[in-house]
Amino acid sequence: MTGTARINDFVVRFANVNGSGSASANQLFARAILRMGVPATPRNIFPSNIQGLPTWYEVRVSEAGHLGARGGTDLMVAMNPQTWDQDVGAIVPGGYLFYDSTRPARRLRDDITVLGMPLTELCNAQYEDPRQRQIFKNIMYVGALSALLSIEAGVVEQLIAEQFRAKEKLIAANVHALRLGRTQALERFACPIGLRVQRAAAVGDRIFIDGNSAAALGAVYGGATVAAWYPITPSTSLAEAFARYCKRYRTEPETGRARYAIVQAEDELASIGMVIGAGWNGARAFTATSGPGISLMQEFLGLAYFAEIPAVIFDVQRAGPSTGMPTRTQQCDVTACAYASHGDTRHVLLFPEDPRECFEFGALAFDLADRLQTPVFVLLDLDIGMNERLCAPFAWDDARRMDRGKVMTAAALEAGREFGRYLDVDHDGIPYRTLPGTHPVRGAYFTRGTSRDEYARYTEDGAAYQRNMERLLRKFATAKQHVPRPLRRDAAEGAQFGAIYYGSTAPAMDEAASLLAARGTAIDLLRVRAFPFHDDVAAFIAEHDRVFVVEQNRDGQLRTLLINECEIDPAKLIRVVHYDGTPITARFIADAIGTSAEAAKIVPLRKAAP
Amino acid sequence: MSFLPKPRLHHPELATNAVGLTRRDYEGAISTLCAGCGHDSISAAIVRACFDLSLPPHRIAKLSGIGCSSKTPTYFLGAAHGFNSVHGRMPSVLTGANLANRDLIYLGVSGDGDSASIGLGQFAHAVRRGVNMVYIVENNGVYGLTKGQFSATSDRGARSKKGVANTDAAIDLVGLALQLGATFVARSFSGDKTQLVPLIRAALQHPGAAFIDCISPCVQFNNHEGSTKSFDYVREHNEAVNRLDFITGRDEITAEYAPGDVEVVRQHDGSLLSLRKLAADYDPHDRTAALAYLQERSAAGEIVTGLLYVDPEPEELHTHLNTVAAPLNSLDEAALCPGAAALDRLNAALR
Ligand SMILES: Cc1ncc(C[n+]2csc(CCOP(=O)(O)OP(=O)(O)O)c2C)c(N)n1
Ligand code: SF4
Ligand SMILES: [Mg+2]
């Protein structure tokens, strides 16, 4: 049969076995497409396992620039017999199957084009060493795909040369395997197939990086010097990237010594404890964790809130509760972070949409933590944290200085400035602090989680306790002016509906809005980038009959927060939730909103009210 | 309850130390602990040791967990910053503080519940990391603040005030500290100031993880017949292996003891410790032998006190992390931020 023809707009999915070394070959494939100027968005779908279980790598090619997951597979590269049935079943009608035909195929469909190539056999004929056979088999299929999809061979070879830099032998071996695959495909099949990559100029100056690395780099630029962490997927690579960047950028040239300290703690309690200790003592400090770590940190987070200690927490979310689906994505720690700890607390949250914002917010979080003297959470998730994503290049202004917030200096103390640790001198709820060791006789105070008066003296006086709790609310209100504002994008014509979304949901939401517009449903968009919510958020909700809150968790956690914090009538906020652990897609959003909007259009909310 | 600051009437006869301060300058707010509580004696010993060493009080950071013992940092060194953190987690907070500024002295004060029960993990890990600190456990074998429940250091068979016997084995923090690589390990008794003050002084001078388990009777809940942490019991069963006379590098060694009885230990910073031996063949440089000795004496019902182990050439966490000499909290943008040009190069490599 003749397959579907699509240029620069299709999805390729690689089905591999975990630990088979396919990752770098798959990455090579995605990068080659990017180098041809065509946006490509890869996503790893991997098990909680080191070796042997199935893993997938999905690349969405989209000249239109849609970076969200699409759903459906146009070309399946089936390299894992374990998942054969599932993989073959996932191909859209008219799609393609590329597989290793060394062993005869089990079950095939007749509505797809089947491209079998005896990869193992070809490889075994070429290589003796089992590891080489494995590695080069992966490179070989990249070669074959380059022919099938008309990816320029020169581009792939150039990437190989860059990857192995001066290691000529490795370059030659990889190029050899690549060409072998390419030649074989050209000989066996009518190349290219209907799916094609065609040179375009849709990538521009964008960069390609994962959110965890970007956030870690943000921490370096933001001046973080202390990191304490405990390994947990999907946050581990953030701490590791921080170590890598620190080694590169933070080694004192004269001495070779470290301008940073990274401690792998014994657990998340210790991680956050170290961060709080360092923050109290004036170093910029952070931890990187995921949901289970956040659960463990609760008591300490309440202390940091109440004792007013700067701390930055990168929470790379995964599906919970408990161990949940540890290698699948969700936005499910929103309420847990917003109200972390017992007692009345509220915490600052930042929601980056992509690696670029992971970098920006990663740096900003430290300014905010110092300015507000409180924990600041940067909420990534597995989808943006662990996948490489095309994003605007990082930017930095060399004139930018760290905002260390209100730290009273030895000179100010010496000059006789009044110091009361919890005194609201500027009426913004933010008091001054001093760092240990500042002045021989002035400015020392006792930090505690128990109630105290404005001069940090222990007290059980209810009035003093309440004054302090009220001041903390004032401080939280001040935070609104400092956190990133929501970004609004209105539909061309006046829209009856609005949609609020955040974080990694952004690309799918953007695409869904255009799908909906094409179907005649106009929708205004508001991307929330931080908590506390800016007044614009409540205003946006007030302006629309109905507002969809699109997110990746079961309970509509941001919606809950909006209802609670902005005192919104729950009926006005419609939950659009996707939480099976796969990244949300534009199709899902468009269908959910579309159905609901159609129903609402027939009986507009306002008119339906008695 | 809020309380009044202590009147700071400087007695004309109060002597000043090398930095021109009096003992009073090392004190804190008036204690709110029970009269006679062992913890107050430890606070007094800390005051004394810091005064003797002429440490500028504001260069000390005092950290604690939660408990009667953990309250005490309010009662000494009023000119120092203090941090009363959460129950059992002082070690991590202290570790972080130490990472931020290696130039201050870190004094961690904790209880047996705080360190051996809820906080055993953090205690162990701070010790094994070699955090440069003085870590004092004010060990009374009970939870004082929650009114007398057994803690993890209560001896098996010890009786509570209500007469109930403890059936769980006791955790010996000294044994753990030795095993985990602490480079200064001592045990003392709040009722023995002459032993305790020099130990605290030596610990403050020790550039590594220094641990002192200080038995500190709770007069309210654990000072009765049948307790193994009462004043009477500890006095009766105390077996000091040595007496420490701390001597700074500048001082002469006073040869007041018979030769052979005194060992002079030169510390890394040049200061000297003079140890008077009480147990004939106790060697405070032999970790393994120390552990064996402790277990043997403990089985015989004795409480071994003194300087149990010291490594004159300790390593600490900053050495392991190879951090720069300047405190991390003092580094500015020039030292920390790679800048726009580096970022542009990085951008280029990501295309
Ligand atoms: C998470 C938590 N659990 C329980 C408590 C209650 N609590 C306060 S102090 C304490 C025990 C303190 O015992 P110890 O450290 O031996 O100090 P002591 O009062 O005996 O000096 C407990 C259980 C608490 N503060 N926090
Ligand atoms: S209850 Fe015990 S430990 Fe607490 S203050 Fe009283 S005597 Fe001391
Ligand atoms: Mg106790």
Keywords:
heterodimer; A: alpha/beta; Pyruvate-ferredoxin Oxidoreductase, domain 3; Rossmann fold; 7-stranded mixed sheet; 6-stranded mixed sheet; B: alpha/beta; 8-stranded mixed sheet; 3-stranded antiparallel sheet; 12 helices; binds iron/sulfur cluster; binds magnesium ion
Quick gist of this model?
By secondary structure, chain A is of the alpha/beta class. Chain A has 21 helices and 23 strands.
State the CATH class of chain B: Alpha Beta
- Helix fraction of chain A? 25-40%
CATH architecture of the largest domain in chain A: 3-Layer(aba) Sandwich
Percent strand of chain A equals 15-25%
Structural class of chain A: alpha/beta
Largest interface: A-B, 77 and 63 residues
Contiguous helical run count of chain B: 12
Structural summary, described in words:
The complex is a heterodimer of chains A (610) and B (351). With 610 residues, chain A is of the alpha/beta class. Chain A has 21 helices and 23 strands. With 351 residues, chain B is of the alpha/beta class. Chain B is built from twelve helices and 13 strands. Chain B has helices spanning 38-52, 68-71, 90-100, 112-117, 120-129, 173-179, 193-205, 231-237, 287-299, 317-321, 333-336, 339-349; strands spanning 60-64, 81-84, 105-111, 133-139, 142-143, 149-150, 184-189, 209-215, 238-240, 242-247, 262-266, 272-277, 303-310. The termini of chain B are far apart. The model of chain B is unreliable at 250-257 (pLDDT under 50). Chains A and B meet through β9, α7, β11, α9 and α11 of A and β2, α3, α5, α10 and α11 of B. Bound molecules: thiamine diphosphate, iron/sulfur cluster and magnesium ion.
